[in-house]
Write a structure and sequence with these properties.
Elements lengths: L1 H36 L3 H31 L3 H4 L1
Protein name: Envelope stress response membrane protein PspB
Keywords: Membrane, Transmembrane, Transmembrane helix
Organism: Salinimonas profundi
Length: 79
């Protein structure tokens, strides 16, 4: 009976060590290496483009808020 319980505990541990752990380590260190390499040229260009779009959106929101403030001064209190 004790051998059966021991077998039920040891088998999954061995399978984990043989199959799951190496794949897990490979994927972990691959992702660490990518993080340390920084952004690629495409990613950097995309980030710059998104930052410009966000700045333009911010300017539009400020303009819309200024228009609303002048036409309906109590609009902020309605929400």
């Amino acid at each position: 009976m004790d051998e059966a319980i021991l077998g039920l505990l040891v088998a999954p541990i061995i399978l984990f060590i043989i199959f799951i752990a190496p794949i897990w380590l490979i994927l972990h260190y691959r992702s660490k290496r990518r993080i340390n390499q920084g952004l690629s040229q495409e990613e950097h260009a995309s980030l710059h483009e998104l930052a410009e779009k966000a700045e333009a959106m911010s300017d539009r929101v400020k303009t819309l808020e200024a228009i609303l403030d002048s036409e309906a001064p109590e609009w902020r209190n309605r929400a």
